[in-house]
Amino acid sequence: MQSISAAFRARPLTRAFTSRPVDGFVGAIGNTPLIRLHKLSEQTGCNIVAKSELQNPGGSVKDRAALGVIRDAENRGLLKPGGTVVEGTAGNTGIGLAHVCRARGYRCVIFMPNTQSQEKIDLLRMLGAEVHPVPAVAYENPANYNHQARNFAKSIPNAIWTDQFDNTANAEAHYRSTGPEIWEQTGGKVDAFICATGTGGTLAGIGRALKEKSDGKTQVWLADPPGSVLYSYISSGGKLTERSGGSITEGIGQGRITNNLGTFVKNIDGALHIPDEKSIAMLYDLLDTEGLYLGASSALNVVAAVELAKKLGPGKTIATILCDGAYRYQSRLFSKKWLQAKGLESAIPEHLKKYAVLD
Hints:
Blueprint: H1 2-10, H2 24-27, E1 34-36, H3 38-44, E2 47-52, H4 62-75, E3 84-88, H5 92-104, E4 107-113, H6 118-126, E5 130-134, H7 145-155, E6 159-161, H8 169-185, E7 192-196, H9 201-213, E8 219-224, H10 230-235, H11 259-262, E9 270-273, H12 276-290, H13 296-312, E10 317-322, H14 330-333, H15 336-341
Parallel strand pairs: 2-10, 3-4, 3-6, 4-5, 7-8, 7-10, 8-9
Antiparallel strand pairs: 1-2
Helix pairs in contact: 4-5, 4-8, 8-9, 12-13
């Protein structure tokens, strides 16, 4: 632990640049910093390190999946110049796809539940995407936004449905890039990795890479919010329970084992359940102590990393993911009224409530 900690402190004041210009937007995806969280590392006696995926050019970890699924379709001859990329998404995957499509000259069509904020719809349209808000219905309903996306892609030539949940090119992108980057940035000294999962691509891809590079020594854990069945699935040895409840976090939690998660689920070492109260308290603490302005899923991942560090004991290096920043959620996460409505204002320590500046 000492040598890694010293190495972090000895680094220069600025982040090093690559040795040459990168190739456009897609060339800027990846190679994100690995940030050592000082206060939490000192409290646990471990190195708590977080991959800062909000520093991808599109602002989130989903830039990698977006590029991965598009490149896979190109390589397989499913998507040709001037083609159309279609996805059903309510969040960062759509934003990543819109960016990559503009950079590579594709039409981008997004189907999303009409319960989503106007800000998300406006952002996607500003990025050049064609957005279809549709009624929010269960996945089993043929009118679900995912099924509408799939059917639309089938109805036009030279089009693909990227199918982020079950297209394993998603996990492959993290296996080939994010996992090896974490291994290199820790000098091959990563004792455990933990993060929450929605599609399953990030956890499965990184987990597989770290398991291979460490000869199975790196533990890989899943973090889960309320309203998801994955914690109970892992903890019970494979029993899917009925999904109930909900969480303030977006883009994570699941009611089934996706194809992406299925590529790795049998190799997961354990799972932790993280309540919203802990996530919101960590979100404010990271802003106050580290200057990091993060979304709720990122905060949940850090809570999980700290809890796992306590389980494994001092001297370990625990890695996680900072999925995105708070900019896309600030009207809620820093709103007194919203926090009160969710029963979360009391979860924030009194000295940190000064950051809830929105009425």
